[in-house]
Design goal:
The complex is a heterodimer of chains A (161) and B (388). With 161 residues, chain A is an alpha+beta fold. Helices cover 31% and strands 21% of the residues of chain A. Chain A has a four-stranded antiparallel sheet. Chain A has a two-stranded antiparallel sheet with strand order 5-6. The model of chain A has no long low-confidence stretch (mean pLDDT 88). By secondary structure, chain B is an alpha/beta fold. Helix content of chain B is 42%, strand content 13%. In chain B, the strands form three sheets. In chain B, strands 2-8-7-6-5-3-4 form a seven-stranded mixed sheet, sandwiched between helices. In chain B, strands 9-12-11 form a three-stranded antiparallel sheet. Chain B is globular, with a radius of gyration of 21 Å. Classes of the chains: A alpha+beta (161), B alpha/beta (388).
Chain lengths: 161, 388
Amino acid sequence: MNKLLEVLEKNSDFSVTELAAMTGMAETEVREKINEYKEMGVIRGTKTLIDWDKLSDAGVRAIIELKVTPKPETGFDDIANIVMSYDNVESVYLAASNSYDLIALVRGSTIQEIAEFVARRLSTLDSVIGTATNFVLTTYKKGGEVFYNGEEQTEQRSMIL
Amino acid sequence: MDYSKMLNPRIAELKPSGIRRFFDIANEMDHVISLSIGEPDFTTPWHVRQEGIESLRRGKTWYSPNRGFAELRSQISNYFARRFDVEYDPDTEIVVTVGGSEAIDLCIRSLVAEGDEVLIPQPSFVCYEPMTIMAGGVPVIIRTRSENEFRLTAEELEAAITPKTKLLILPFPNNPTGAVMRREHLEAIAGVIEKHDIMVLSDEIYSELTYGKERHVSFASIKGMKERTVVVNGFSKAYAMTGWRLGYALGPEPVITQMTKLHQYAIMSAPTTSQYAAIEALKHGDSDIERMREEYDMRRRLIVDGFCRMGLQCFEPEGAFYVFPSIKASGLTSEDFCEKLIYAQKVAIVPGTAFGECGEGFARVSYSYSLNHIKEALRRIEIFLGEL
């Protein structure tokens, strides 16, 4: 496995010096590799992992399932491109499923706003033959981090030598 | 009622673990970043937990045979043969215990008679000395040195042996120093042992956590040593199974027979649920060990590099999940250093003296924590050192 990328995926804050120490690589090598990954498009950027549930005015999110008729030439790409061009769409995936083809993660300030977006923008698209809207109630895990596990946060390990 | 007359003086006079007071401070403070805990931060691999759950679902809630389930002993035997190249008969040379600690206790009590001397290299885990005293033995401390990277040397061993010596404790990979004994170091020790009629208790609980080029070598695999060695190991450290309380001892039949007898009277049998989970761990857990070991290794490198950068002198530990830096340059005692650090920067590490007087001048830092956690702790320790 690629240790450098694994560490960076968990935390982009590590300095080149720290990354070199952890992976056993030379600092110059770490720098070169990171640049190389950026050029190759393997490293796509760094963002902050936010637990929106902690805020009262964080809005709502929904997972929208889309049943789509694929186009003869381009398959699902055309419709995926249209869906992902909306700013309130966070992620779009093509799925292998009996009931739907595309999944879109959508953000809005209210339930009505999302419902309206689905009804007006997505359902009306040419090749979309059905949608299902799933509102997100609790984020248990995101970006590899556990946000909520149903338990009070307590010190789980006791002080034992 | 005057209990002082009722209590067994040998037990009453045992010193409680000196670290309690320090842990109490840490527990009472908020937002403490701890690098003090001596157990894996990983949870037991899910497939192993599932086997435990499955055994409960099927209602397998009875005692196991005293020695442990035959299948578990046979898996332990296979594991030892494939990993450390030592063969043990599952029927007569293995006993499954409640953690490695019980195995250590059984071994010491089975071998040590009143007045027998037990050689204990320190700094080391806290239980060997009190267990020796409880068995009526006399602990003889051998002080390992930082210039030898806290390994036990043949000369130190030779100098400590007397006609009363019965047993040598060999606690490597070592808690708290992270020291390991490579094959050549073990062979040197074996050279001394074979000249004297003494037994060895090799506590190899951290055997899966070594990071050098050479993986762990069991003392029992050194020529001529199997017949005079009891190896203690367990599931806690290798598979992150501390709470399951499951360990084992491997050794010559006459010793294991006595240990099993003690175990039978005191404990009956190790937890049944844990044994089912452990069978799964031994069968399918190799990749879990490797995954956790690699993660520990990365943390180890980060922390050793961080300490070196801030001028905290420490040798590169090759085993367990501890670093043992020298804090002598601060001019403080270990306890003062750790106490000041926790009050000033809310970072908890353990004074070296918790592991024997010769730990003075050092502190144990555990890296059984996430990389992010370690990074923040290092930042705080650096500020602390700058303000000293």
